[in-house]
Amino acid sequence: MGLPKHGFVSWLVGVLFLCTLLLCVADIHYYEFFVRESNFTKLCNTTTLLVVNDSYPGPEIRVRRGDTVYVNVHNQGNYAFTIHWHGVRQPRNPWSDGPEYVTQCPIEPGTNFTYEVILSDEIGTLWWHAHSDWTRGSVQGAFVILPAENETYPFPTPDADQTIILQSWYNEDYKQIIDQALATGLAPRQPDAYAINGHLGDTYGCPNGAFWH
Ligand SMILES: *[C@@H]1O[C@H](CO)[C@@H](O)[C@H](O)[C@H]1NC(C)=O
Ligand SMILES: *[C@@H]1O[C@H](CO)[C@@H](O)[C@H](O)[C@H]1NC(C)=O
Ligand SMILES: *[C@@H]1O[C@H](CO)[C@@H](O)[C@H](O)[C@H]1NC(C)=O
Ligand SMILES: *[C@@H]1O[C@H](CO)[C@@H](O)[C@H](O)[C@H]1NC(C)=O
Ligand SMILES: CC(=O)N[C@H]1CO[C@H](CO)[C@@H](O)[C@@H]1O
Questions:
Q1: 115 C-alpha to center of ligand 5: Å?
Q2: Does pTM top 0.70 for this prediction?
Q3: Best CATH choice for the domain 26-162 from the list 3.90.1010.10, 3.40.1390.30, 1.10.260.40, 2.60.40.420
Q4: Cα 171 to averaged position of ligand 2 atoms, centre (Å)
């Protein structure tokens, strides 16, 4: 009889230990995403893009391992879309898609939907992006998951970190480019420029392309 009792105590200690490590320090975060068409002037050309909070790339989500994230997505644009939490497993949540892909109804223009993203053991820099087709080209951003409060990095603790997002830039309606590629079965044409965190750099020969734009 002593053994099962001992087993139970070990189990309880295990749960409490896990709780201290992860669950009990896990936080809940709330984000608001306003998705709409927004104008960007680059390479002396103004292009309209569907983006989150008028920002290209979109806002970064920065949380810790084991946290829960609620993202209230308001669709103020002209197209329906869903948001995919790329690399986050969502076995318990059929309304978010991860590798265990579950089809979700798109968020229609003029409506909003709150995603519940339950993190478990994911860690590192993932990303979120819209579905489908062309919307992911501009409705996207980083999803940074730091170690839990009392947890160390799986490598020497960095002094600082910087998120770098590489993107293709088109001087043209991105939707048209992707629609055309899908219709013809051919790859999209070469982009007009490449961007780092939405900036084109100062080598493209147009003041609008400068790094500070
Ligand atoms: C998006 O914009 C709204 C309204 O300006 C703001 O309240 C919200 O915090 C912004 N979201 C993010 C993730 O920056
Ligand atoms: C973007 O630019 C187009 C064309 O100049 C204009 O019709 C539209 O109102 C602008 N949209 C926004 C959100 O400023
Ligand atoms: C829509 O947004 C409102 C206000 O932010 C919020 O109270 C409501 O719960 C949201 N609805 C859904 C379905 O997420
Ligand atoms: C702006 O983009 C359009 C479409 O790609 C192109 O025809 C036009 O030449 C561009 N204008 C400038 C000033 O680069
Ligand atoms: C959030 C949390 O559990 N913080 C603890 C991390 O560890 C230090 C030292 O052991 C504690 O003082 C904190 O309370």
A1: 30
A2: yes
A3: 2.60.40.420
A4: 15
